Amino acid sequence: MITLTSANNSAVDLNQQVSDTATNQETPRLALVQAASVDQPSVAHHEPMAAPTEIERKWHIETLPDLSGLKAKAITQGYLAIGKDGTEVRLRQKADQYFQTVKSEGGLVRQEFETTLNQEQFDTLWPATDGKRLEKDRYKIPHDNHTIELDVYKGKLKGLVVAEVEFKSMDEAKAFSTPAWFGKDVTDNKGFKNKNLAMLDAAPQAPSQEPKVNASKHRSLVSFFKKYL
Q1: Which of 112, 120, 169, 186 is deepest in the core (most CB within 10 A)?
Q2: Which one from 79, 98, 139, 153 is the annotated catalytic residue?
Q3: Span 136-146, mean pLDDT?
Q4: 46-70, pLDDT tens digit by residue?
């Protein structure tokens, strides 16, 4: 027998109550299960969403194009965590906009998840990027049916210029016709990935060899929590 105690300490025989209210003469236990299922909202089944994918190529630029009439947007970014599998967690500020982005390892094709932060959230997390930061000016240049994002790095990476172009498909990326001022394709050069550039002490001089990253600057998010929280 199931017995509950009410607020006034009087014993309530739940089996008896359910049995009295059941109209189909089923057992109290089954009636209790049926009663519990009444008015329960149904849960719709949703198919898992495909992960957002970024298809992007990158080039090292040695000679700047004509930038007259173009206005640059300043970007500051740092890395909260860089996993051994190449996954990265990035913070970025563009003017009064703040973002947190998670990217998978990869060259031409990567998975990318981005969310917007407010300034307070950004400022709280920013100290964890110490030693893994960079700053640059970004110009957007129309080219055929695409947009070239030209990044002119500043600070410790001054002198480095990189161009990036995003595509809707692999075929589109492979068919892209580069302008004459583009240099070597460094899409698969790990040393020219921003997460690694952020840990360099100076700009890489040439894309023929992958720049060596100072491994001592790899810091985990765990150390941040220990220091700041």
Answers
A1: 186
A2: 79
A3: 96
A4: 555 556 788 999 999 999 999 999 9
